[in-house]
Write a structure and sequence with these properties.
about 350 residues, mainly beta, Neuraminidase, Immunoglobulin-like, 9-stranded mixed beta sheet, 7-stranded antiparallel beta sheet, 31 strands, globular
């Protein structure tokens, strides 16, 4: 394996961690018990550098080639925008078709985030101002709405997505950020993608001096925004009132709990319908695993249990999955409500008693 900076990684549906090599088309799987690596990924068409990887409902991993074979002198033609799919069952890559638009920046290969939506569509933000939609259900590409040109310091500037983040909101939309051509150049602007349109959202206080943004889905359903400055912003999306159809459901959990105890958890959609958030090659903020939140009815104090030993990390998985959770020793006793939260979406509260 060569250096891994500016290279992607992902946790596969079976829980195995896969990491890409920066300067090659090579990937490796980590065995966490023996701490050894096994090479995988035969048939990849482009080096891993600058790519992002998106886990799909099929269990496959989507990437968009950014053409860095050209940058590294492996070819004399700049080819980008071609989608590839990694199949963990066979350890091989295959074609996912071509996006039909320039998604990576020439010639350095910067590209925006790619976020899976609840309907199986992947919103892929581009580094040249144009965006694309990948239909993972039918392996087809569609053009997406382009980022607008905005006025900045009296000059028109094209917004793009280079080293910036996006996140799936509990209402099903994607919150995406965009900056100015040249990677992490300010200003930064925010939009909600509703499946058809990019809807402008309010600026953050540092919009005029920030260009690099990471987004994280919180258990509350809000989005934490982290940038190159020392402050942190919280984005609260509009909600439609009703719980989305992709809330965790069919939950089975012990109703009598004890502080410091460890208990099994069974349910459907424990891993949500998406990894939740993405940035690409520089950071991964996936939240496709269940959190357990226990609220004391009398005091309304909220406690989170550590979850572990997930049976699956597959997104949009209709089959039952399992996990274990550790009730904290300081958990308040008495009648409480337990919620399972994934990607900021909580199941219906379950009455429990903490003894």
């Amino acid at each position: 394996m060569s250096p891994v900076g500016d290279a992607p990684s992902v946790v596969l549906p079976n829980g195995t961690f896969m990491l890409g090599s920066k300067f090659s088309r090579q990937q490796a799987l980590l065995d966490t018990k023996t701490l050894t690596w096994t090479l995988t990924g035969a048939g990849k068409k482009d080096v891993n550098s600058e790519e992002g990887w998106t886990l799909l409902p099929s269990g496959k991993v989507l990437t968009v080639d950014v053409g860095l074979d050209y940058w590294f002198g492996l070819t004399n033609k700049y080819n980008s925008g071609h989608g590839e799919l990694y199949d963990a069952d066979f350890g091989t890559w295959s074609s996912a078709g071509n996006a039909g638009t320039q998604l990576s920046a020439f010639p350095d290969g910067e590209i925006g985030p790619a976020v899976l939506m609840a309907n199986g569509m992947v919103f892929v933000a581009g580094a040249e101002g144009t965006n694309a939609i990948y239909d993972s259900n039918n392996n087809r590409w569609y053009p997406g709405p382009s980022f607008p040109v905005v006025n900045f310091n009296g000059q028109p500037v094209q917004l793009v997505a280079q080293d910036t983040g996006a996140a799936l909101l509990p209402n099903g939309r994607v919150l995406t950020s965009a900056n100015v051509y040249g990677s992490v150049n300010p200003p930064v602007k925010f939009f909600e993608f509703d499946g058809k349109n990019l809807i402008p959202q309010p600026d953050i206080p540092d919009s005029a001096i920030d260009g690099y943004v990471l987004l994280l889905v919180l258990p509350s359903g809000q989005i934490m925004e982290i940038d190159a400055q020392t402050d942190i912003e919280i984005y609260t999306p509009a909600t439609e009132g009703a719980r989305p159809w992709y809330t965790p459901f069919d939950m089975e959990v012990t109703r009598e709990l004890h502080p410091g105890g460890t208990y099994p958890l069974v349910g459907r959609l424990l891993n949500g319908v998406s990894q939740g958030a993405a940035e690409g090659d520089n950071a991964q903020m996936a939240t496709n695993y269940p959190l357990v939140r226990i609220t004391n009815i009398k005091t309304h104090h909220v406690f989170y249990s550590r979850t572990h030993d997930f049976s699956s990390m597959a997104v949009a998985n209709p089959k039952p999955a399992t996990a274990w959770f550790d009730v904290p020793p300081g958990q308040e006793t008495g009648p409480s409500l337990l919620e399972v939260v994934t990607n900021g979406v909580a199941c219906e509260p379950i009455p429990v008693n903490v003894e």
